[in-house]
Amino acid sequence: MTGSAPDRIISARSSKTDGKGTVVLEASGVTKAYRRGWRHAPLRVLTDANLTLRTGEIVGLVGENGSGKSTFMKIIVGSLQRDGGEVTRQGSVGYCPQQPILYERLTCDEHFELFGRAYGLDPGMTERSRDDIYETLGFVKYRDTRVEELSGGTRAKLNLGLALVHDPDILLLDEPYAGFDWDTYLRFWDLTAERRDAGRSVLIISHFVNDEERFDRVVHLRDGKTTS
Predict the structure, then answer these.
(1) Which of 195, 172, 170, 51 is nearest to 159 (CA)?
(2) What total of structural domains would you count in the chain?
(3) Helix count and strand count (H, E) for the chain
(4) pLDDT tens per residue across span 29-39
């Protein structure tokens, strides 16, 4: 689920086009520094981060560990305040954080029910979406299993599934396939391709890209700045 930013994310009132398609998310001139006490200068993580996501695109945001990718993603989502710049987005958002935010004593089914209610879905829609996600990612046998009993890979599947349950227009994924086996990795790419074909948009951040041909574009983050 998406958090609320201390400084409000601007939601576009009407669709914007830039000559290449309809823009559903745009971050421009984003800056962020972390304060480290009065004895130390601020740690500048983002100095000029920019990103555009259009309808029906899969875009990768790539950078080394510590480059500020997760910071940038949290700002885009709205769970972290930025120091400068602007973020606009159009449509519903699903967010899959790098570290799963799950409840240890709830089952997978109970998680989907909880998130479905949070997104305002009726029970029938939640059930249909949940069952499709179980089938697509291959973990239906764990539906009645508590999170505390799940492997890291199955937790990763549930983490992704919760971001998908409301069929968002924009899917924001932070290192989503780090815990996947090869079969789930391939299922993941089939799923993202289906979402692109349906006019949905996907942003994936990672510290490396193996299958660059699966992306429409890859944006690199280095020294606080983005380059295509």
Answers:
(1) 172
(2) 1
(3) 5, 11
(4) 999 999 877 77
Q: Are the beta carbons of 157 and 184 closer than 8 angstroms? A: yes
Over residues 86-119, the pLDDT tens digits come to 999 999 999 999 888 899 999 999 999 999 999 9
What residue has token string 């823009």? 23
Residues 23 and 16: beta-carbon distance below 8 Å: yes
CA atoms within 13 A on the CB side of 217: 17
- How far apart, in whole angstroms, are the C-alpha atoms of residue 194 and residue 20? 21
- Percent helix, strand and coil across the chain, each to the nearest 5: 30, 30, 40
* Strand 84-89 versus strand 10-11 pairing type: parallel
Domain membership of residue 32 as a residue range: 1-90+200-228
Q: How far apart are the first and last CA of the chain?
A: 29
Q: Is residue 34 part of a domain?
A: yes
Question: Tell me, what CATH number does 224's domain have?
Answer: 3.40.50.300
Backbone angles phi, psi at 86, to 5 degrees: -140, 145
Q: How far apart are CA 96 and CA 94, in angstroms?
A: 7
Residues 37, 134: Cα–Cα separation, whole Å: 46
- How far is CA 173 from its chain centroid? 3
| Residue 68 structure tokens | 């500020």
Look up the pTM and report it: 0.87
* Rounded distance between C-alpha atoms, residue 223 and residue 228, angstroms: 14
> Could you tell me the CA-to-CA distances from 38 to 15, 32, 41, 44, 81 in Å, in that order?
44, 17, 8, 15, 20
